Amino acid sequence: MGLFRSYENAGPGIDPNAPKKPPFQRFWAMLWQNLGKLFLLNILYSMLHIPMMASLVVFLETNNKFTYAMTVFLLLVQMLIEGPTMAGCARVLRQIVLDKPFFFNDEFKKGFQQNFGAGLLYWLIDALVIASVVAGHFVYPNIAQETGSKAIFIPFGISVAVALVLLFMNYYIWPLQVATKLDKRTVLKNAFMLSGLSLKECIISTLGSALMIGIMVGLWMFNSGLIFFAAFFPAAFVGYLVMFVHYPVVQKYVINPYYEETGEKNPEEIEEISEEERVFTDHGGTEQPVKAERKKGKVIS
C-alpha cells in the first residue's frame, strides 16, 4: 500500500519455497487476502435469503386472507433454493481454501446449478431434523407436565443427538458434494464417517460458529441497527471457517487416497516443473531490495 511507504521501492519479493505457515496464521492470512470475495459472497448469500425475510415481513406486518398463503409460498421458494445456495457458496469457499485463482460468478453458478437436486435433498433432510427438534422443544415439556413422567425427555434427547450428528455431517456434506463425483448416498455415508473421525475439528467449527452468532446477537442487543452488518460478513466467515478446518480432512481421507489408488494426477496438488521445462526461475525472497532514486526536478517560479 502506498499510503505509508513508497511503491517505487522494489522489495525482496516473495519466496516461493518459504516454509508453510502454521494453520492458525494461514487462516487469518487467507482471510485477509480474500476479504473482498468473502464480503461479496455474504452479500450474495443474503440476497438469496430475501424470500425468507419477506415471509417474516408478510407474516408479521399483514393481516388479510392472503397472509398465510403468501408466507407459505415464500418459505417454499426459500426451501427450494437454500440447498443449491449452500452448494454454490461451498464451491467458492473451496477455491479460496485451495488458494487458487477463479472467477467468482462462474464458480458460484456451477455450484448452484450442478448440485441443485443434491442440495435440495440435503436441505430437506436438515429441515426435517430442525423442525423435529423445534417441535420437540415445545411438545415434550407439555407432555411431561401432563403425564408427570420425565421419561418422555428420552426421545427428545435422542432427537437432539441426531441433530448434533447431522450438524457435524453438514461440515462435510457440502465439501464432498462440490469436490467429488460421489453419489448422494455415498456423500452422506462418507460425511457420517468423517464426522466421527474428526471430532476435534467439528468442535472447533461449532464453537467458532457459535462465537460469531453470539457476536451478532450482542451487536443486535447493543444497537438493533448493527444487525445490518449481518449482510456483509458473518455467514461467509462461518463458511470459510468450516471449509478451512474440514476440507483438509476430506483431502486426507477421500481425495488423496482416490488419486493414489487410481494413479491419476491430483489436480489439487501443485505440480513441480522440471529444470528442462522451466522457462524462468523465481528468485523471490532472495533478491536485494532496490531503492528508487528520486531526481529533484526544477522549480518554475
How would you describe this protein?
- By secondary structure, this protein is mainly α.
- It has one domain.
- The protein contains 10 helices and no strands.
- The longest helix is centred in the first third of the chain and has 32 residues.
- The chain is globular.
- The two termini are 33 Å apart.
- The N terminus is likely disordered.
Overall number of strands:
0
Helix content: 55-70%
Number of domains: 1
The secondary structure category is mainly alpha
Global geometry: globular
**Rg, nearest Å:** 25 Å
Q: Helical element count? A: 10
SSE string? HHHHHHHHHH
Strand content: under 5%
Q: Tell me the span between the first and last alpha carbons.
A: 33 Å
Unreliable stretches (pLDDT < 50, length at least 5) are 1-5
Task: Give a short account of the largest sheet.
Answer: none
Mean pLDDT across the residues is 85
Short description:
This protein is mostly helical and 301 residues long. The protein has helices spanning 23-33, 35-47, 50-61, 67-98, 104-114, 116-147, 153-179, 184-197, 199-222, 234-262.
Features:
301 residues; mainly alpha; 0% strand; globular; disordered N terminus
List the helices and strands and how they pair.
Blueprint: H1 23-33, H2 35-47, H3 50-61, H4 67-98, H5 104-114, H6 116-147, H7 153-179, H8 184-197, H9 199-222, H10 234-262
Helix pairs in contact: 2-10, 3-4, 4-5, 4-6, 4-7, 4-10, 6-7, 7-8, 7-10, 9-10
